[in-house]
Amino acid sequence: RKEVEQDPGPFNVPEGATVAFNCTYSNSASQSFFWYRQDCRKEPKLLMSVYSSGNEDGRFTAQLNRASQYISLLIRDSKLSDSATYLCVVNNPNQGGKLIFGQGTELSVKP
Amino acid sequence: GAGVSQSPSNKVTEKGKDVELRCDPISGHTALYWYRQSLGQGLEFLIYFQGNSAPDKSGLPSDRFSAERTGGSVSTLTIQRTQQEDSAVYLCASSPPGGRMGTDTQYFGPGTRLTVL
What we know:
heterodimer; A: mainly beta; five-stranded antiparallel sheet; 11 strands; 0% helix; globular; B: mainly beta; four-stranded antiparallel sheet
């Protein structure tokens, strides 16, 4: 079983749609959680960290459920420019600084 | 300021040859990480450096892989006797000092696309 699992998609949605990505992680000792975005043939870039109380950044909302070991990302009013692969990432500081990446969920926003 | 840079951007080599991949982290970043991304796969951790030391080499796939970092800055990932399954994008990331390991943002370079024929 992969340490971080995501629905690979692709998710094909029209502009303006709301789309939700889910992610589960297997290591209960994980303490830091992130969503990264990766455009085609580009490097990953941090989209947002995920905090226990949930956090929002504009159209993006991240949620964490430690009991269920579940992370989510909600994108509201999706734009064409949101088309990318969204990577769920966790870290267990007891394992040093390495990030554990999910395989990513591909999003395609159509006009 | 300048981001993480990697060279070469693309490398095509023949099976059995050795290759060296270079990473220049963001100035002042003490932590440096190597990952690789194979076609259709997620990012896979290889090794990380804190300063010049490598506390965690657990991700290196075999003893053909090695990495070093000198002067707390530039790092080189070396793959000896390359195999076709080594073909991937090799990504380097760095993060600033001061934070607890893994909690700080890791800034990625553009990667080196390695193709082993």
